[in-house]
Design brief:
The chain is an alpha/beta fold. It has helices at residues 60-71, 107-114, 124-137, 157-160, 166-172, 181-195, 249-256, 263-272, 275-280, 286-294, 298-322, 332-337, 339-346, 358-362, 387-401, and strands spanning 2-8, 12-19, 24-32, 40-45, 51-54, 85-92, 103-104, 143-147, 203-209, 213-219, 222-226, 327-331, 369-370, 379-382. The chain folds into two domains: 2-147, 2-Layer Sandwich (Nucleotidyltransferase, domain 5), CATH 3.30.420.40; 197-387, ATPase, nucleotide binding domain (Nucleotidyltransferase, domain 5), CATH 3.30.420.40. The protein has 15 helices and 14 strands. It is globular. The two termini are 16 Å apart. The relative contact order is 0.11.
Amino acid sequence: MKVLVVNCGSSSVKYTLFEMDSEKKIAWGIVECIGLPEAYYKRQTSGSDEQKDSVKVTNHMEAAELIIKNLMAPETGSIKNIDEISVIGHRIVHGGDKFSKSVLVTEEVKDGLKECFSIAPLHTPGHYEGILAVEKMLSGIPSVLVFDTAFHQTIPDYAYMYALPYDLYEKDHIRKYGFHGTSHNYVSQRAAAMLGKPIEQTKIITCHLGNGSSLAAVEYGKVIDTSMGFTPLQGVVMGSRCGDIDPAVIPYLINMNKDYADPEALNVLMNKKSGLLGISGLSGDMRTIVKAVAAGNKKAKLAFEMLCYSVKKYISAYFGILNGADALVFTAGIGENSPSVREQICKNLSAVGIEMDVDKNNEPSSSERFVSTESSKVKIMIIPTNEELMIARESKRVLTNG
């Protein structure tokens, strides 16, 4: 059984083709910068090296056509005809309160997804265009929508509600939704397996740290709280996002600076010009920040410390909410690849049973591993995330169960 996983952004189409009997990747790639002169197509198969070519694609339909043709190319393709694909799994960032679990695509489902445009305007329209493109190119093959927000649907109301007038929740659906759910789901399952326990007997704090970052408190396999909120802006300091701030800063900025009377200007400020980038003035990329810290850059050091401190605060809060934890998991770009960030976050957390083995933490590896001391009550793990595989599994499950 083959499953094609598709992740459409506003200007990109990313894909992975899986053989589900072995859960191995057959082919993968991305069409990036759709509609721009610098558009390119980067792809690879399990039996070949990566290739990258400049391409001319003006929309998602053309990108999907390019990908399908490449998958079926006589000499270099991975399938002989489209019927080899049993189901297509689409990653969807935001399901709002319309979708609490993965679903087969129907006309009714597509109409419901369009109703979510307003709460994720940067992501959902691109997802929708991708669905239409794949439907046209792979006519007759069922599609499944897998929502980043779905794993967080178990959060209790007292944790997902904001203390605003209740009718804003009823009329405008303003509440915490949470994101990176597919990643948190995958790594929490892997953590339970590494602990040798059923996930229903575990308490795990998962840290998805990348350009966008979020934490989740996972109790017995179910999320009871997460750091991102109504949008991916809430929570810890991120690459270019500010994370938690006093909401009164917003009307203050509007009153003090006429440039911020425009809501979009505020949105750009908090989402694209803040975080590591805004504090350091250098970059939102942690690799650049770490190098600048080593070179003695004070603003880079401040940005580094602010990010780590904000993560440590959420870990401490979730330890209290869970009444203890079996494991602390680091994943995603920064979580998997930045020893200095992990070390700084875990420093001085021995009071809650978190003790890092610094030598293990500094060992270069891309494998799942423990980096806690033997005596640490809370096991510290690094688990590479695999959202694409999780989407493929979900798509297979939904297709099998109808």
